[in-house]
Amino acid sequence: MAKKPVRFHLNGSEKAVFVEDGQNLLDMLRRGIGDLTPKYGCGQGTCGTCTVLIDGEPHLSCLTLAETVEGRQLTTTAGLASGNRLHALQAAFMEGFAAQCGYCTPGMLMAAKALLDRNPNPSRQEVVEAISGNICRCTGYEPIINAILEAAKSGDARHYG
Amino acid sequence: MPVRVETYERLDEAARALASSRTARFLGGGTLIMRAVNAGDQSFDTIIRARDANWSAIRAEGDGFVIGAGVTMAAVVASRDLVFLAPVARSVGGPAIRNMATIGGNLFAASPYGDFAAALLALGATVNLAGSSGRGIPIDDFLRDRERHATSLVQSVSVPRPRDASAFRFVKVSRVKPKGISLMSIAALLPQMGGRLQGARIAYGAMAPTPIRVTAVERALEGQSLDIATIERAAAVATEGIDPPTDALASSWYRREVAGVHLKRLLSAERR
User: B96 vs A129: CB contact, 8 Å cut-off?
Assistant: First the structure.
């Protein structure tokens, strides 16, 4: 099968990979690049754990044709921490026990980052709406919502990552 | 699973390629096509896409708007012109889906999806195909012949602007809040002249294989004032001539039972 070259930015650094025809972005990130932070959950747009940011906006990487990210800016959970310093959202998730099995966490973090980048002081309802496309079967959502509000309150959420 | 991807710069080129193959699908936002690829759908072997920027433009024309088929739900929500459609677009998926899903794709979404198409049906939109110079197809006809249009490329949708904000109403009924799949959606265009309804159009989503007009309800409303007696009469025929589907979300019986209740709430503009 024909392979096509794709160039884009991932977490600030330039990447160039070959993609297969019909390959989705999640598969390209995980197998082609080795960024294992976005997860495969449902493959049909229901669960949200594959959420990544494309030009700052949340997208489902499992439903994105890989070659369409040519020239775009991608952000994944791998790009959140700077060195060994966690992003405010990651720190708040850890402090607030917002991750249990952890499978939804990367998608939750990216959905939350997209929200805080645009709206640094969201209401509880806005947080609920922002993660409405992300399913968590462990926490009952409350610790996740609280953690995102905590991260917003800390004011660090936009300083890096 | 081998699937070939063909990319075109212009929509009419893509439309020609699509029309010449029975096993090709056009890629909009990916929420339907990539989902099918992930599920191993063998009914198509080619994905066709276009980079044409016209495809995602919104422009005013006459007393309405021409919305490019590639306009996303998020772009509808953000548009200052399409305020009347914002609640409909906001009801589709979560934020990531709304950044991807297009209004063109929604026309082809199988039940229980296609809430936006139901709204366009109530608004009396017309569907404009790429590569055809003639007038657009009334959305009623387009949806009725949807199977036949599988090889057509939708370029845009022309939507008349409702006369005033209260003349268009929409509700999506789902069990999961804030984001859930439709048990049904109801879109109602309720233009009034001298206190009487004239040209009322009611459409349901998720009550048939495609969004449908509800002619019995429209007949009950036509020429009447929108009072309690009229609303009762309309609700009484809410599912006349309709055979709602049974799916994982609700049975046919349930949909039939609740349709009148939700219709009544929408027509009387009750807030829950």
Answer: no
- Contact of B181 with chain A, judged by CB distance below 8 Å, is answered with no
For the entire predicted model, the pTM comes to 0.95
The total number of structural domains in chain A stands at 2
Q: Is residue A159 part of a domain?
A: no
CATH topology of domain B54-160: 3.30.465
Look up the domain containing A45 and give its range: 3-79
In a domain, A118, yes or no: yes
Q: Roughly how many angstroms between the first and final C-alpha of chain A, as a whole number?
A: 37
Of A21, A63, A131, the CB nearest to B31: A63
Q: For tokens 């070259």, what's the residue?
A: A5
The token pair at B138 is 């009334």
Q: Quick one: A112 and A145 in the same domain?
A: yes
CA distance A129 to chain B (A): 7
Q: Where does residue B215 rank: exposed (0-12), middle (13-18), buried (19+ CB within 10 A)?
A: middle
- Can you tell me the ipTM of this complex? 0.95
Per residue in B22-39, pLDDT (tens digit) is: 999 999 999 999 999 999
